[in-house]
C-alpha cells in the first residue's frame, strides 16, 4: 500500500520546523516562503494548520496542465512536475483548490514531491502532526479514536442499566 | 551567506536610516545577538545619560544561528540602558520575529533619537520605513499586531510591539511579539515608549544562506534528537516550564507571601497538571522541537472568554505563590492582563507582593492604596493593581516606577522587604538554601535574574566527578554547599552569553537538561552556518568578552562590588519551612563574600570586581569606548 502524507492538525504546535527543513532540503537555504509546506495560523485563537499538496487522486493540476508536464510517480504516489516540459504558465497554481502549489524565486513551480518517498518535514515534526503512513492506517487510527468515544458512551449506558 | 545580513542605524529624530554591512571582525569577537548588542551599547552610549532621553538607543539583534531548523533558533535580543536599574538593559525574546527580520535582510537595528509623533518601523525585504502610528496608539499588544497585519494585508507579518504600559512609560514595560513572547526584563518597552515607537513590524522573503547546508540539515536533526532525549525536554513539551514548580515547591525553594515563606502550602491547585483543564494544545517558537507553551482558553470570568498562551513558571510565581493566590485561573487571568498591557510579569508580581507585605506590616494603609485592601490571596486586588500600574493611576503610579523610586516615596523602612538586586525584582525562587543560585542573582549584570547564569542542574545532586567533567573544576554535589559553586556560576554566565548571541534557546542547552548541546555542539553549528572555526576555549573567550563588556558598562554607571549582593533578608532570616534538607537555611555572609572573590578571580576581575588590565588586554577590549564600529 502506498503511503500518504497525513496532516493531524490538532497536534501541530506551529514551530515551523517543517517549513525550514523543507526549504533547507530542497533549496539549500532557510526560507519558509520557498518551502513546499506552510503552517497557516490564526494566532489570536491558537489555530495552526499545516497546508501541503495532497497528491490528489484526481489532480486538477494535472488536468489543467497544457503541456502534460504533471504525472504521478508510481513508486511514491507523488504528483511530479517534469521541468523539461513545464513552460511556467502557472495554471496549476491558479486552479489548485488547496494552494498546494506555489511559485519559487526562480519563477518555477514549487510543489511537494514527497522527497522521493522519505519526506524531510515528517522527520522534523516532533509533535507528529505530520505523518507518512499507510493509507489504510489512517482509517484504522481514526476508527480507534471514534470507537474510544463510543466505548465511553457504552460504559455510561452500562452503568445506568446496572 | 549570513554575512549579507545588514545592520541598520535608524534615527527617529531626523528620519535618517543608514544601512551597513556587519564587519567580520565584529562577528569574530561578538558573534551576534546579545554579544553585538552589548558591544554597541558600551560603545554608543555616553555615561550617565537618562535612559528615557533621546540619547538612549534601542538595539534589536537576531542571533548568529537564527533560522536553522533546531535549537529554538528564533530568539531575538533587545538591549538599551535600563530605565529600572540604570545598568545594562537586555532582554531576550522567542517567537518568530528575529528570523523574519533576518529574511527581510537585517540582523541588527540601532534605533536612536525620538520620534515627534507615534510611529512604527516597517521593515521588508531590504527596505526600512518609518510610518505613522497614530491609529495604533492606545491599542493593546494583541490588537496592535492584528491591525498592522490587516493594514498591510499580510498575515505573515511579525511585530515587536508595546502596549499601554510602554506608552505610559511604566519603567518595567515589556516588548511583546505574538500571543505570548515578551522581552520582559529591564524595561525595554519603556525605552521604546520613550521614543514614541509603537511597533517594529517586519516581513521577509529573502534567503538565509549557510556555508554547509546539507551537513547543517543532518546535524540539526541530531541536535533535535539530543535535546528531546532529555527527560526535561519531554516534560516541558507537555507542561511547559510550570513543570519546575512540582519539584521546587515540594522541596521548599519557592518564595511565598513575598518572602515570608519558602513554600506554598496546599498549593496543589497550581500544580502543572491543573493546566490540562484549560489547555487546547502546546505552541512552539520558531525552530523549536520542545514547544513548551500552553495554548489556553478561559471560558468564563470577569474578563469574558479569553484565549492566551503561557503562563510561564515565573507568572505562576508572580501571581500565584508570591501573592498567595492558589488558583490556576487567577494566574491565567493575570497573565492575560500583563500580556495585554505589556508589563513584565515578574517585576509586576514582585512589586505587588512587596506592597502586600507592606500593607500587612502597616507600612502601607488604605490611605495610600486608593482604598484597596492589599490582602494575601485577594485576586481582585491583583487584577486591579495590574490595571492601575499600566494606566499609572493612583497607587499604581507609585509602583509603576519600580522599586527604587517607590521606596523613596513610601519610606526607607519599606526597603528591607523589597526582594531585588541592583533595583530589579527577583523571581519567586528562594535561593537561601542554594548558594550557587544565590550567587547568580547577585552577580547578574542586569540585576536579580535567573537567566544570566542559573546552574539549575546543581539541584539534581549529580555525582562530583560528573560535575567536574562539565564545569572543569571540583565542586560539591550538594546544592547547599558553597564549595566550587562560584565556578558553576561563572561557567554558566559564559555559556548563556554565547546562547543569547547565537539566538538559540537556553532550554536547549545545559540549563535544566544535563545532556543538552553546549560548547562543542555550538562550535560545530557555527562552522556549518558560517564556515568560521571556533574552538571551545575560543567560544568561552567570546563569552568572557561579552560578560566583561557588560561589567564595564555597569562600572561606568557607578556599580561596584557593593551591588553584587543579596537582599538583606537572605542573610538575616532563615527558611522557615520545606523539606528538612532546606529548612533553617540562610546565606552565610562570610562564605558568600569568599565565593564572590573566587568568582571575580575566575573572570579575571580584581577584588572590587573591576576587570584587570591584563584581562582587558587578553580580551582585546579598549578601556575607552570605540565610536568607530
What profile does the largest beta sheet of chain A have? Answer: 2 strands, antiparallel
Q: What's the multimeric state? A: heterodimer
Strand content of chain A: 15-25%
Number of helix segments of chain A?
A: 5
Distance between the termini of chain A: 45 Å
What is the SS-derived class of chain B? Answer: alpha+beta
Here the CATH topology of chain A equals: Alpha-Beta Plaits
Q: Report low-confidence residues of chain A grouped into runs of 5 or more.
A: none
Q: What does the average pLDDT of chain B come to?
A: 96
The parts of chain B where pLDDT drops under 50 for at least 5 residues are none
Give an account of the 3D structure:
The complex is a heterodimer of chains A (162) and B (629). Chain A has a single domain, classed as Alpha-Beta Plaits, CATH 3.30.70. Chain A contains five helices and nine strands. Chain A has helices at 17-27, 60-64, 91-95, 120-124, 135-161, and strands at residues 3-7, 29-30, 37-42, 47-52, 70-72, 79-81, 102-103, 109-110, 130-134. Chain A has a two-stranded antiparallel ribbon. Chain A has a two-stranded antiparallel sheet with strand order 3-4. Chain A has a two-stranded antiparallel ribbon with strand order 5-6. The model of chain A has no long low-confidence stretch (mean pLDDT 93). With 629 residues, chain B is of the alpha+beta class. Chain B is built from 23 helices and 18 strands. Chain B has a six-stranded mixed beta sheet, with helices on both faces. Chain B has a four-stranded mixed beta sheet with strand order 8-7-12-9, sandwiched between helices. In chain B, helix 7 packs antiparallel against helix 19 (519-530), helix 11 runs parallel beside helix 13 and helix 18 (485-502) crosses helix 20 (536-556). The mean pLDDT of chain B is 96. At the A-B interface, helix 1, strand 2 and helix 4 of A face helix 4, strand 13, helix 7 and strand 14 of B. Strand 2 of chain A pairs antiparallel with strand 13 (208-209) of chain B, so a sheet runs across the interface.
Amino acid at each position: 500500500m502506498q503511503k500518504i502524507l497525513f496532516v493531524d492538525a490538532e497536534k501541530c504546535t506551529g514551530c515551523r520546523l517543517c517549513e525550514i527543513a523543507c526549504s533547507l532540503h530542497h533549496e539549500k537555504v532557510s526560507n519558509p516562503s520557498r518551502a513546499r509546506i506552510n503552517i497557516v495560523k490564526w494566532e489570536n485563537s491558537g489555530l495552526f494548520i499545516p497546508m501541503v499538496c495532497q497528491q490528489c487522486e484526481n489532480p486538477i493540476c494535472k488536468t489543467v496542465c497544457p503541456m502534460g508536464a504533471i504525472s504521478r510517480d508510481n513508486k511514491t504516489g507523488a504528483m511530479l512536475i517534469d521541468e523539461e516540459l513545464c513552460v511556467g504558465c502557472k495554471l496549476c497554481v491558479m486552479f489548485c483548490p488547496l494552494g498546494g502549489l506555489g511559485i519559487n524565486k526562480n519563477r518555477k513551480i514549487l510543489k511537494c514531491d514527497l522527497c522521493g518517498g522519505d519526506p524531510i518535514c515528517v522527520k522534523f515534526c516532533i509533535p507528529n502532526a505530520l505523518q507518512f503512513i499507510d493509507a489504510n492506517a489512517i482509517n484504522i487510527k481514526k476508527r480507534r479514536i471514534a470507537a474510544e468515544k463510543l466505548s465511553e458512551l457504552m460504559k455510561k449506558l452500562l452503568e445506568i442499566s446496572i | 551567506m549570513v554575512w549579507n545580513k545588514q545592520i541598520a542605524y535608524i534615527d527617529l529624530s531626523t528620519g535618517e536610516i543608514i544601512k551597513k554591512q556587519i564587519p567580520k571582525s565584529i562577528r569574530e569577537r561578538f558573534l551576534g545577538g546579545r554579544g553585538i548588542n552589548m558591544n554597541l551599547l558600551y560603545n554608543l552610549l555616553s555615561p550617565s545619560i537618562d535612559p528615557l532621553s533621546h540619547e538612549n538607543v534601542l538595539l534589536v539583534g537576531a542571533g548568529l544561528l537564527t533560522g536553522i531548523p533546531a535549537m529554538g533558533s528564533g530568539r531575538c535580543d533587545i538591549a538599551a540602558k535600563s530605565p529600572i536599574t540604570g545598568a545594562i538593559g537586555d532582554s531576550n525574546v522567542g517567537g518568530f520575529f528575529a528570523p523574519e527580520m533576518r529574511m527581510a535582510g537585517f540582523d541588527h537595528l540601532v534605533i536612536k533619537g525620538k520620534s515627534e509623533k507615534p510611529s512604527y518601523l516597517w521593515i521588508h525585504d531590504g527596505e526600512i520605513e518609518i510610518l505613522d502610528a497614530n491609529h495604533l496608539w492606545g491599542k493593546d499588544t494583541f490588537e496592535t499586531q492584528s491591525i498592522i497585519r490587516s493594514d498591510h494585508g499580510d498575515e505573515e507579518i511579525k511585530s515587536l510591539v508595546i502596549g499601554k504600559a510602554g506608552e505610559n512609560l511604566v519603567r518595567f514595560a515589556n516588548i511583546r511579539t505574538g500571543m505570548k513572547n515578551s522581552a520582559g526584563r529591564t524595561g525595554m518597552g519603556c525605552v521604546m515608549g520613550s521614543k514614541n515607537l509603537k511597533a517594529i513590524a517586519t516581513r521577509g522573503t529573502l534567503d538565509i544562506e549557510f556555508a554547509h547546508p546539507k551537513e547543517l540539515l543532518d546535524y540539526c536533526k541530531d541536535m533535535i534528537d539530543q535535546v528531546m532525549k532529555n527527560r526535561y525536554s519531554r516534560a516541558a513539551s507537555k507542561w511547559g516550564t510550570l513543570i519546575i514548580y512540582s519539584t521546587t515547591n515540594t522541596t521548599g525553594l519557592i518564595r511565598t507571601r513575598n518572602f515570608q515563606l519558602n513554600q506554598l502550602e496546599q498549593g496543589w491547585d497550581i500544580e502543572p497538571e491543573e493546566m490540562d483543564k484549560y489547555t487546547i494544545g502546546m505552541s512552539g517558537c520558531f525552530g523549536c522541537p520542545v514547544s513548551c507553551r500552553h495554548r489556553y482558553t478561559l471560558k468564563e470570568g470577569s474578563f469574558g472568554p479569553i484565549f492566551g498562551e503561557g503562563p510561564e513558571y515565573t507568572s505562576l510565581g508572580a501571581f500565584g505563590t508570591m501573592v498567595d493566590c492558589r488558583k490556576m485561573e487567577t494566574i491565567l487571568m493575570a497573565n492575560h492582563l500583563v500580556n495585554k498591557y505589556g508589563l513584565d510579569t515578574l517585576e509586576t508580581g514582585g512589586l505587588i507582593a512587596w506592597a502586600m507585605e507592606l500593607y500587612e506590616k502597616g507600612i502601607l494603609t488604605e490611605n495610600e492604596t486608593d482604598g484597596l485592601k492589599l490582602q494575601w490571596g485577594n485576586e481582585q486586588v491583583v487584577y486591579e493593581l495590574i490595571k492601575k500600574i499600566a494606566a499609572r493611576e493612583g497607587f499604581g503610579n507609585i509602583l509603576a516606577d519600580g522599586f527604587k523610586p517607590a521606596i523613596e516615596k513610601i519610606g526607607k523602612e519599606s526597603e528591607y522587604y523589597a526582594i531585588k538586586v541592583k533595583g530589579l525584582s527577583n523571581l519567586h525562587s528562594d535561593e537561601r538554601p542554594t548558594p550557587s543560585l544565590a550567587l547568580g542573582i547577585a552577580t547578574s549584570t542586569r540585576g536579580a535574574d535567573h537567566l544570566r547564569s542559573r546552574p539549575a542542574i546543581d539541584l539534581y545532586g549529580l555525582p562530583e566527578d560528573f560535575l567536574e567533567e562539565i564545569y572543569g573544576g571540583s565542586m560539591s554535589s550538594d546544592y547547599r554547599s558553597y564549595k566550587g559553586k562560584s565556578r558553576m556560576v561563572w561557567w554558566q554566565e559564559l555559556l548563556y552569553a554565547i546562547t543569547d548571541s547565537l539566538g538559540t534557546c537556553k532550554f536547549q542547552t545545559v540549563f535544566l537538561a544535563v545532556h543538552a548541546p553546549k560548547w562543542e555542539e555550538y562550535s560545530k553549528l557555527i562552522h556549518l552556518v558560517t564556515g568560521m572555526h571556533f574552538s571551545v576555549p575560543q567560544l568561552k573567550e567570546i563569552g568572557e568578552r561579552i560578560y566583561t563588556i557588560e561589567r564595564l558598562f555597569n562600572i561606568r554607571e557607578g556599580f561596584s562590588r557593593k551591588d553584587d549582593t543579596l537582599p538583606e533578608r537572605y542573610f538575616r532570616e532563615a527558611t522557615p519551612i520545606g523539606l528538612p534538607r532546606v529548612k533553617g537555611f540562610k546565606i552565610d555572609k562570610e562564605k558568600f563574600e569568599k565565593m564572590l572573590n573566587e568568582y571575580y578571580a575566575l573572570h579575571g576581575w580584581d577584588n572590587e570586581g573591576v576587570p584587570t588590565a591584563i584581562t582587558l588586554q587578553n580580551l582585546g577590549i579598549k578601556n575607552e569606548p570605540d565610536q568607530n564600529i
